[in-house]
Amino acid sequence: MNSLIIGTRGSPLALAQTEIIRGVLLRAHPQLQIESRIIKTSGDQFSNLSLTVGAGKGLFTKEIEEQLLRGEIHLAVHSMKDLPTILPDGLTIGAVPARADARDVFISKRYSSLDELPKGAHVATSSIRRRAQLLSRRPDVQIEEIRGNVGTRLQKLADNDELDALILAAAGLKRLGYWDGETTQVHVGADSIRDRSESRLQTAPTLTCTPLAVEVMIPAVGQGVIGCEVREKDMETQELLVAVNHADTLACAEAERVFLRALGGGCQVPYAAHATVAGEQMRLIGAKFSPDGRDFSRTEALGQKSDPHELGERAARQVLK
After folding, report:
1. I want to staple 299 with a disulfide (CB 3.0 to 4.6 A). Which of 50, 55, 184, 318 is the partner?
2. Choosing from 44, 82, 101, 248, which is the catalytic residue?
3. Does the annotation mark 82 as catalytic?
């Protein structure tokens, strides 16, 4: 196989993630010719559609998967948290690279932590998972829905004096270069820090960025994971992807996705799960919430990384009890 076509959304984050996969593939297969094809999804076409009212599964994947099934592309690159837990017949996850920072982060112009927010503060998010957990911890805050890519959301926070804070995924901020993961500053102004000159960076608005511990804000299923989706029968592409795959990350993602599937949830349901590996053991924290955060059930389960399916199902049963 001499050439490969990768299908992706056209957002800055989707393109950055595609470049990560492209780079790994080229290091392993220097002679491979790789084309990236931008495919517009329903989520991109209906940018004003609310994500907090169950807009439907596969909102950011359906059109890409259709081209994959037709053989128009060889590989689809997704944020794993966007992928429904049940893939279309004939498709499978061919590989995932090592997971990035799975945490959510608290971003604000005026405050350094969630606990510092005054009563009635306005916090922006488009995720019902984040909404439920925020309200569970701080029922006094006002949740504001926000749409757009990472740069757009940061700019909205910087420009809108009525917004006190914003919750985003750490992985996206890092992959786009907004945040280095070490400092507490996020700079606003262009699509990413990499696009800015030093002089522009110095004059750009600065926001405070604080990671939220997993125990405070359980991440979404698959958060921080890039999924490489392929046709089940396309063994040539799957062979190329061996160089991309990180076994521990794949096991964690599988446990989380089994957990969500066993609960009957999708990307628009307020469930959360995060798995980690230590040696041969895997630990999974999972929870389900009511949309207003008042009711929730949380569990922590241990199992073997060699059997993520069993761990995910057991954790789901514990939450349902």
Report:
1. 318
2. 82
3. yes
